[in-house]
Amino acid sequence: MDDSIIELRRYSDLLFTFNEPDSCAEFLKNIHDQKVFLIVTNTLADIILPLVHNLSQLDSVYILCKSKTIENNWTRDWRKVREIFDDISFIFPQLQRNTRLCEESLMSVNIIGETSTINLNEIESSFMYTQLLKEIFIEMKHDEMAKQLFVDFLYNLYADNRILLNTVDEFKRTYEHHSPIWWYTKETFIYSMLNRALRTQDIDVLMKMAFFVRDLHKQIVQLHFETHHTTKMIVYRGQGMFNADFEKLQKSHGGLISFNNFLSTSTDELVSHFFADCSRSDPNLIGVLFEIEIDPMISSIPFASLDHISYYSTAEQEVLFSMHTIFRIGDMNEIENRLWKIKLTLTNDNDEQLKCLTDYIRREIGGGSHYHRLGWLMIKLNEYDKAEKIYTKLLETTAIDDWEICAIFYNQLGIIYANKGEDNKALEFYDKAIKNYQKASSTHSGLYATYSNIALVYKCMGKYETALSMYKKAREIEEKIPLSKDSDWAVTHNNIASVYRLMGDFSNALSHHQTALEIRRKVLPPNHPSLGLSFNNLGVIYHSKGDYTTALANYREALEIYRKSLPSVHSRPAETYNNIGFVYDSMGDYSTALSYYQKALEIQEKSLPLIHPDLATTNRNMGCTYAAIGDYSTALEYFQKVLSIQKTALPSTHADLATTYNNIGFVYDSKNDYQIALEYYQKALDIQRKSLSSTHPDLAMTYKNIGGIHSSMKDYSKALSYYDKALEIEQITLSSNHSRLAATYSNIGVAYQHMGDYKTAMSNFLKALEIQRKSLSPTHPDLANIYNNMGVVQGSLGNYPIALLCYKKVLEIREKILPAVHLDLALIHLNIGVAHYRMKNYSTALLHFQKTFEIQEKLFSPTHSILADICDKIAMMYYLMENYSTALSHYQKSLNIRQKSFQSIDPEIAVNFYNIAKTFERLNQYQEAVEYAQKAVDMTRLLFGCDHSEVKENQEYLDKLRQKL
What we know:
Structural class: alpha/beta
CATH topology of the domain at 111-147 and 176-362: Toxin ADP-ribosyltransferase, Chain A, domain 1
Mean pLDDT: 86
CATH superfamily of the domain at 111-147 and 176-362: Toxin ADP-ribosyltransferase, Chain A, domain 1
Shape: globular
Helix content: 55-70%
CATH architecture of the domain at 111-147 and 176-362: Alpha-Beta Complex
Strand order of the largest sheet: 4-6-11-12-8-5
Strand content: 5-15%
Distance between the termini: 102 Å
Largest sheet: 6 strands, mixed
């Protein structure tokens, strides 16, 4: 058996043996993104097959049996059982063939629909990746050292695999004795390693194999040139495709498909049909037989017949295409269930869509050396560690006095560190870039880009004044560049506007966005996407100002432009749908908000990777909306989705994670689970202290959240200490009229109000009001909140007429901006009702309490305790107006609600019993009054014990009633 294991290692270095079925099954369950081939003895087959057969990672099973004549039903009952062998050596060729088939099925493809619009977001990153790699590998020059580095890598990789080490020795000694195609078709470790690296975008392995890729491509080109093809020919390829890829292919008739590797085909249709048919044994795959037409008269794309060149000679009549060959998708027909025949055509040299696509990718990639372009792509793919290695190596090999090239690499490293959240390191490299550019030229165009990058870092750090000064420096450079474009000017104005918005200076932000729009209108066609972006930006500012109508108008203008100029699944319309949803959210129209968020999500799920930050943003927005309507469990589900994306895509100390922890904390805060909320707020704070500057506004927001928890827990002194920390940061980083400052003053005011220091509370509310009046529209909801707080303070001081003036301002604002059924409208009617009650205006108070009830019964379930509270207030007004019958019906309604929503013994229910008893007494129904008074006594005694003052008061009242019987 030892010799057999050694032989098996020829086909895979990942060989594992087990003596126990359970441990084998457990191992298989923990395999991800790989396929497993299982060899099992007949004595264990009946035990192991039920445990593992349905696992998607299990490709096939081979049963080793002492005698093939033993009666069994394995191949009939278990579709993954390929064959039964009585000699393990017979398994080897079958295994070699099937591992090759498996590799073929796992081969990834890129599919681009038939469209004239080419945009980075619509081109799969792997398409650009393989296109760029192909160009780089063709350009690269290698010496003997390149092969030696690859061999050293293999020695280290296969250190424990004697048979593969022998093969590597042979490769090292005799590489030049055979052709690259011979090696590619002979050695599994080369074929599998190369195609796996291309499929998984493993740049480390690919760079080590670059010399071989170049040699293999050159041989295909040479053979193609020597063959002189003049007539059309048909080749075939059979493979499995995952369901999602196949569905995309079905929808892309007339589009393009590329295979992200060297593509093996055959002139023998039966061989390819066999490969396609075998794929159907996996329920996750669709069998696909590609029929590929090649017309050498219109296409010069290289391919080569491997007859007499392949290690396997003419076994499969193989034709090999170089990596990233692109085909046009033609007709599709289903041959049998889950087996399709699809016609492909090798692309024409003059294919307009392909030419447009290639030009676009080259523009995006830019110039420079192949390593520089590869580093750029790593940044685009968020592979920052790999990009860092590439640019560090480039700097080491660049002359120190080549100022311009060094500056470019320093700038790229700055971008890398900024994306990794290492702001100080990013600034260090940007500074080096600036110094090098200045040595080359004081008006070098690179200075504009680098100053803009520095500004972006300071903006992310919350240092808005410094960010502004950097953007202004960028603009000064831009003014001196002779050929600077008007469109670049528009970008600069947008950048400056974005900082003013964060500072709360909405008028300056609006001015710069409007200037950007004017520039773009002059130089761009009316439906250019950049115009849509300008309208979107204006919408954001109007939303921030509380001008929701104008915000929506601008967002809809943006959508109309995007509709005419961009594909329906482009990320920009999704961003605008998100923004529209946010406006409706602010207006309290939560169902409409959710519908727009859902539109954004549908686009993003089709066009973006599953861990893209835009998906996190949309899920966050939906979570916030569900939290606002009180659906906390659904809110938490969305926030957990956000957390899952961020934990996969971001470092553990990224500030965006802190935002999500704050969101989750807010949900628990709203549920009155203060301790859990505090834990999440503390998690957010821990991350922000590591990742943000000590004066970042987001840090202030977390301090306010923690302060709010302590306020809810009635620890007002501790709450104030956190509010003061927040205020200190915001006074440093924000403009004096920023709405966040106003919110902090308002929070401080509420804390002092609860402490009974109404004078200090009022002083802080007035500071908040002064700020909001300067920066917000007269109907902004934040203004209403401040007036409401002021009304509460005046009411606490007994100044009810002044309180009512404040409340009426609140009502005017909320009636203008909120839907008729909104909780905030119910609450302001409640406050107005309480003020009139205190002034003994019972009939007016009753009207407002009734309006509160009308709204709340549409928002809450019939058994929600909040409805019982308002029924009590309505009942009390009728009682005070001596309408005892109506009062009684409302007290009984309140009791019914509480008995359904509370525990059977509750202080609120005891109060209900007492109120009903009092009302029956007024109606001279003493027997009923005694009955409910007795219930009040019994319940308070159970709750508080016999000696409690409330029990004694209830008992005295009961005794008094009994005397009236």
